[in-house]
């Protein structure tokens, strides 16, 4: 039997995964499910591409890294635009099925936390919101203990003659990354002397800005939908989300903007 489009994409299984819990089904619950499932697919792709970038950085592959950051930036733009779809869901329409979410919350997305860890924003306390022994929990533990994209970026910079202080190369990988003045001086030199690296650094900044924009749009979405209420599953809602707002992935790239 010839392979079909539906077979290749496993469409029968995929399209059977949208199962509203409201009975009778509330019209807008399908939208809510589809959008969040789509986000998880985008998160999966972002993780896939960020792992590639780590490899590119460690191996010193400039142009493949440039190509991948173009893709990452574009994916983030789509993720931000997808918020527009969710915002067609009014507070009243969300409340029509919100109680069906029970203890489930987007706060529990292991893939999003995995992406944060991979990007260097590591917070061990996030593990307590995952179920030990599950694949998602095990992936998070692995990401917590391994070098991040930022650590791989240090290796890339070192290949280009940037001095990376010992406290960065020997640091505890379970701790979040932080800006460093010595690294910033090295990046500034490369910015001004190597056009190919300038392109890479700008694309990295584009991606970083897109990631921060997604956080902002997500916060405003939650705020306009549930206001100051706690999130589903007992999550802290808007106030918790605001703690990570404007937290850059590559702080050293932002720190030198005024000197370019």
Primary descriptors:
260 residues; mainly alpha; Methane Monooxygenase Hydroxylase, Chain G, domain 1; globular
Write the layout of secondary structure elements.
Layout: H1 5-9, H2 11-15, H3 27-59, H4 62-86, H5 91-95, H6 110-118, H7 135-145, H8 149-159, H9 166-169, H10 181-193, H11 195-226, H12 238-242, H13 251-255
Helix pairs in contact: 3-4, 3-6, 3-8, 4-11, 6-7, 10-11
Account of the 3D structure:
The protein is mostly helical and 260 residues long. It has 13 helices and no strands. α3 (27-59) packs parallel to α6, α3 packs parallel to α8 and α4 packs parallel to α11. The chain is globular and about 65 Å long. Pfam families: Trp_dioxygenase. Substrate binds at residues 32-36, 98, 232. One of its GO terms (biological process) is L-tryptophan catabolic process to acetyl-CoA.
pLDDT averaged over residues:
90
Query: Which architecture of the domain at 27-95 and 149-259 does the CATH hierarchy give at level 2?
Result: Up-down Bundle
Enumerate the spans where pLDDT stays under 50 for 5 or more consecutive residues: none
User: Which percent range fits the helix content?
Assistant: 55-70%
Radius of gyration: 20 Å
* SS field, number of helical segments: 13
In this structure, how is the largest beta sheet organized?
none
* SSE order, one letter for each helix or strand: HHHHHHHHHHHHH
The first-to-last residue Cα distance is 60 Å
Number of strands: 0
Structural class by helix and strand composition: mainly alpha
Q: What best-fitting shape do the alpha-carbon axes yield?
A: globular
CATH topology of the domain at 27-95 and 149-259: the name is Methane Monooxygenase Hydroxylase, Chain G, domain 1
What is the percentage of strand-forming residues?
Answer: under 5%
Report the top-level CATH class of the domain at 27-95 and 149-259. Answer: Mainly Alpha
EC number: 1.13.11.11
Keywords: Dioxygenase, Heme, Iron, Metal-binding, Oxidoreductase, Tryptophan catabolism
GO molecular function: heme binding; L-tryptophan 2,3-dioxygenase activity; metal ion binding
Binding site for substrate: 32-36, 98, 232
